[in-house]
Specification:
heterodimer, A: Transcription Regulator spoIIAA, 5 strands, globular, B: alpha+beta, Heat Shock Protein 90, about 25% strand
Chain lengths: ~110, ~140
């Protein structure tokens, strides 16, 4: 699993996550996303194209990061979720708060 | 050879999740071969998330050294079973999902139930925990 955070503007970044986002990896992903927020990147787009599987621990990591962005006056949006990620967001009803976009560019555009 | 019934004993550690996903992939290949066609994605996703959540629950809370994970196809019914010799499960297997709460935890078993046709836990007389996950597949056309 890896997380690569790419700054796109002074307050906005794209975090590209690769690998399963589950019990084994969620705490590390959460820590890296929260470090990005703490460094001033309050508007995050999390690109999940490279995530083949997410579980409740992974959802918890995203929710934790979402709350951190909101406390800092920003937001977190999901880009390019795969089929399994979309399925889990739907059955958990978390697609209501973790808003998904088909492309990174579309997610970024919502911050403009 | 692909088998529509498979059982393995896995360590009750997070590393076991890799083996669990590999078992599921092999099992679905065998099921598709036996049924003569692909299984649609949602039943596969439903079983995968349920199995991962139950395994995570055992790893986190059962205080067991290992657990047995088995997968079986009977007709159009898939049954997954977890057995461990850990402490009894005392939580609520009928959890609630409320996205507005923005909860970071406590949703695993509620999520597990969502994609299954039946989900149950029993503390057996031999002092083991048994989780049974059942999925009914559509009849092949």
């Amino acid at each position: 699993m890896s997380v690569h955070v790419e700054e796109r503007s002074p307050r906005t970044a794209v975090a590209v996550v690769d690998g399963r986002l589950d019990l084994l990896t969620a705490s590390d992903v959460k820590r890296q996303l929260q470090e990005a927020v703490a460094s001033g990147l309050h508007r995050l787009v999390v690109d999940l194209h490279g995530v083949p599987f997410i579980d409740s621990s992974g959802l918890g990591a995203l929710i934790g990061a979402l709350k951190a962005t909101r406390v800092a006056g920003g937001d977190l949006r999901i880009a390019r979720p795969g089929e399994q990620v979309r399925y889990v967001l739907e059955i958990s009803m978390l697609d209501r708060v973790l808003v998904c976009h088909p492309t990174v560019e579309e997610a970024l555009a919502r911050y403009e | 050879m692909l088998a529509t019934n498979e059982s393995r004993t896995l360590p009750a550690r997070p590393e076991a999740l890799e083996a669990l996903h590999e078992m599921l992939d092999r099992f679905w290949s065998a099921v598709e071969s036996a049924r003569g066609g692909p299984v649609s994605p949602n039943p596969r996703h439903g079983l995968a998330i349920a199995a991962a959540e139950v395994a995570a629950n055992i790893i986190r809370y059962a205080q067991a050294d290992s657990f047995e994970f088995s997968l079986t196809l009977h007709g159009n019914t898939v049954e997954a079973r977890f057995i461990d010799a850990g402490v009894p499960f005392l939580g609520v297997a009928d959890g609630h999902l409320d996205p507005e709460l923005l909860a970071e935890g406590g949703m695993g078993l509620a999520l597990a139930k969502r994609g299954l046709d039946s989900f149950g836990y029993q503390r057996l007389a031999n002092q083991t925990n048994c989780w049974t996950l059942v999925l009914l597949l559509p009849v092949p056309t």
